[in-house]
Amino acid sequence: MADREWILLNPGPANTSPSVRQALVMPDLCHREPEFFHMMRSCRERLAHLIGGAQDWTAVLFAGSGTAAVEAAICSAVPPEGALLVVNNGVYGDRMLRIARAHAIRTEAITYDYLTPVVPGDVERALRAHHEISHVALVHHETTTGLLNPVGEVARVAAEQGRRLVVDAMSSLFGEPLDVTQDGIDFVVASANKCLQGIPGVSFVLARRSAMEALRGRAPRSVYLDLHNQWATQEQDNTPFTPAVQVLHAMEQALVELEREGVANRIVRYAENARVLREGMVGLGFEILVAPAARSNILTTFRLLPGLAYDPLHDAMKRRGYIIYAGQGDIRTYAFRVSNMGTLTPADMKDVVEAFASSLQELGIAAPAKR
To the nearest whole percent, how much of the chain has pLDDT over 90? Predict the structure, then answer.
């Protein structure tokens, strides 16, 4: 049933437009020809324009999932004599920590539970205590729970302490307010298949040109994930390895559609999606795990109702054409996640709530009595 149309409520890959999917159907194209390089440059320039980076920022494309670009940024940014401070309050913060350790990068970590955003003062204390730290790595939106970390405040602290920030904005770029050009931020990582509403297979690093130039001549820790080599080659309208040609064509179409909608308008649409979803689900008796001040407008983690297990709920929703997402780690035993990114609208989210109500009725689960 792979050809069925699903409403995807997982945090990427998200639902895409018919025109983005149609862009995959293109003539075969050699990746060493001018036609491909024009497409690649179009994507890179549109990305820099959409973040407001003008001439000071640049984009580096990778054929790979988002983790490939995260690893490229981390293993390339931190110098041999430096160290990395990782904020760990979710699965993806922990992944950045594991990436750094895999490359034998010295690390320090600030660890919180999965419902607590980073405290900028803790970052400042860690930077004052560890002068060897050159970079801070932080996830903006932890899709582990739908938690937002205060990137702007952490960037300010890092800049004041003379350190630089690597931001994993995988599931928030173009879906949440984020000034990536703020002083202190050098690298921002995302992928095509989240709030950009493209197809999986291309990820990218947005970087200050000055930060990229600073990598020149440094011995790489990786061949494929050498950020400077990829950038320098792409700047020359070339590519060191075979890229995902058709996926990049779909990404170009997704960028055109984002320009048409406008980043600010997309952020507003996602916020309204979240409002409709949350009000409806609370009305059915579901509790939201993350406190209001720390919630994203992209994903919500709901506590399972008494007597309700995730798998039956998932299957009941899938029978209705909706794909929900399990919690990660221990959270899976008592909560589940619903994302509202992609081409979804507030009207779609109203239908989602109705599908949950129908699923609960099918499963014989009554909403808790209101207090």
Answer: 95
**Nearest CA-CA partner of 146 in 14, 274, 333:** 274
Task: Label residue 216 exposed, middle or buried (CB < 10 Å: 0-12, 13-18, 19+).
Answer: exposed
Could you give the CA distance from residue 227 to residue 74 in angstroms, rounded to a whole number?
Answer: 9
DSSP assignment, residue 286?
A: -
Amino acid at 279: E
CB 197 within 8 A of CB 19: no
Cα–Cα distance for residue pair 93/84, rounded to 1 Å: 12
Instruction: Render 63-80 in DSSP notation, one character per residue.
Output: ES-HHHHHHHHHHHHS-T
Full set of structural domains in the chain with CATH: 7-11+262-363 (3.90.1150.10), 19-260 (3.40.640.10)
Residue 62's φ and ψ, nearest 5 degrees, are -130, 140
Whether pTM > 0.85 for this model: the answer is yes
Cα–Cα distance, 93 to 96 (Å, whole number)? 5
Token pair 């419902």 is at which residue? 115
E-strand stretches of the chain = 7-8, 57-63, 83-88, 107-111, 133-139, 141-142, 147-148, 164-168, 185-191, 202-208, 287-288, 299-303, 322-323, 325-326, 335-339
177 bridge partner residues: none
DSSP string, 204-229: EEEEEHHHHHTTTTPPPS-STT-HHH
pLDDT single digits (tens) 140-193: 999 999 999 999 999 999 999 999 999 999 999 999 999 999 999 999 999 999
Distance, in Å, from the CA atom of 53 to the CA atom of 61, rounded to the nearest integer, reads 16
